[in-house]
C-alpha cells in the first residue's frame, strides 16, 4: 500500500506542478488583458462622471472599475484560495498557514466583488440625462446569485471553520459541502464574468460600432478563453484520486490534508 | 463500519433524491422557457431565409434552431448523462444499462450540438445583403472550445470504455480524468450557453429596442438562473463522500459504482 501510494503521489505531483504553473500564467494573462482592455478601448477609470455638457455625462470611467475588480476577485484571488490546500506551495507547508491564506484570500475576493458591484451600480445611477436601470440583464441576475452564494459561503466558512463552532466530526461531515459550494461559486463567478464580458462587448459593437477584429471585441473574447482555462486549471487540482486497486495509479496528487489526522493525546509513542 | 456506511447512505439518499427532482424540474423549465422565447419574441424557426425584398432577407428563423438545440444538448441531455451513474433511477439498476444510457445521451448531445452550430453558421452565411461574419465573438470562441473538448471526450470515452481498448486498471486510472473532463465540459457548455443568451439579448435590446422588462430580455435572464441551478444540481450528485472517521456522516450518497468490484472467479464462498 505504501509503495502504491508513493507511485500515485509521484505521478500526481508530475501532473499537478505544470497545472499549477499554467493556471497562474493564465491568471496573470487575465490581469494583463483586463488592464489592456480597460485602459485601452474602454478609456480608463475614474471616480467621478465626466461632464459632456447639455445635461449629459460619461460614467464609463466609474463603470470600468467593475470588470477590473471582478476579474481580480474571481479568477485571481478566489482561484488562488481554491489552490491553497492543493497546490505545491513550499513556503506554506503547514495546514494552519494554508488555512489563514485561504480565508484571507476569500475575504479579499468578497470585499473586491462588493466594491465591483458598487462601481457598476454607481455608474448606472449617476448617468445623465437619465440613469441606467440596475438589475435587469441576464448578467446582473447571474452575478447577483453568485454574490449572494459567495457571502453565504464566507459567513458559513468563518462560523464553521475559523472560530470553530462545530465539532471535528461535524467539520469533516461539512467538508465536501463546503468544497462543493466553493467550486460551484468559482465556476458560476467565472461564468458570470464571461457573460458580463459578452454584454459589454456587444454594447461596444452595436453602440460604439466596434469592428469584429477590434481590440474592443478581441480582448474580451480572449479573456473568456483564459477564464475557461483558469476554471479547468483550478478544478484539476481538486480531482479525487482513483479508487485504489491492483495496477491502479492515482493521477490526482495528494495535497495537504484538509483535516489533519489527530493523534490521541494519550498515545504511547511520540 | 457497516452501520457507519449505512447511516451515510441513508442521509445521502435523503439529500440526493430532492436534488434529482429539483434538477429535472429545472431542466424542464429550461425547455419550456427556451420554446417560449424562440417561438414568442424571436419569431419561431424555419429552414430557409425569409425574403424581405430589395436584396435583403431574414435568416432569424434558421438561427433560432441554435438556442433550441444547444439548450437541449447541454443542460438537458448532457446533464442527464452526468446523472446516469449517480441519480436514483430504479428502472436502471444495472451498471451496463446505465452505461448504455450514458453513452447514448452523450452521442445525442454531441450530434445536436453540432447541428446547433450548423444552424448558427448557416444563418450567418445566407444573410443578405451581406453575410454576418462567423467566429468573431466571445461566445463563439468559448463555444468552439467547448465543442472541441466535447468531441475529444466522446471519442476518448468510446475508445477507452465502450469497446474497451484499455485494461481494467487503466480504465480505473483514467476514471477521475474522464469524470473531471465531463463535469468541466458541462460547466463550460452551460457557461457558453449563458454567454450566448446574453449576446442575443443585448442584440435584441440595442438592435430591436427590446425594453428591460420585455419577455425578450426577461426570458434569457431567467434561463441563465436555471442553467446555474442545473449546474449546481447535477454536480451535487458528484460530491465525494466525507472521509470516514468516528462521528463523521457522509452527506454524499453512493450511487451505482463506476467500476464494479470484481469478485475473483475462484472465490470459495458464493
UniProtKB/TrEMBL annotation, chains A, B:
Matching PROSITE patterns, A to Z?
CYTOCHROME_B561
GO cellular component, as recorded = membrane
Q: Does the keyword rRNA processing apply?
A: no
Annotated ranges, domain Cytochrome b561: 22-236
Per its UniProt record, what InterPro entries does this chain match?
Answer: CYB561/CYBRD1-like, Cyt_b561/ferric_Rdtase_TM
| UniProt key word Kinase | no
Domain of life the protein comes from: Eukaryota
Q: Where in the cell is it found?
A: Membrane
Coarse class of the protein's main subcellular location:
membrane
Alphabetized PANTHER family for the sequence: CYTOCHROME B561-RELATED, LD36721P
Listed A to Z, the keywords are: Electron transport, Heme, Iron, Membrane, Metal-binding, Transmembrane, Transmembrane helix, Transport
Q: How does it sit in the membrane?
A: Multi-pass membrane protein
Q: Which residues cross the membrane?
A: 21-39, 68-88, 100-121, 141-162, 174-195, 215-236
Provide the cofactor list for this protein: heme b
Q: Which SMART domains match?
A: B561
Entry GO MF terms: metal ion binding; oxidoreductase activity
Task: Write down what this protein is called.
Answer: Cytochrome b ascorbate-dependent protein 3
A Pfam family that the UniProt record links to this protein:
Cytochrom_B561
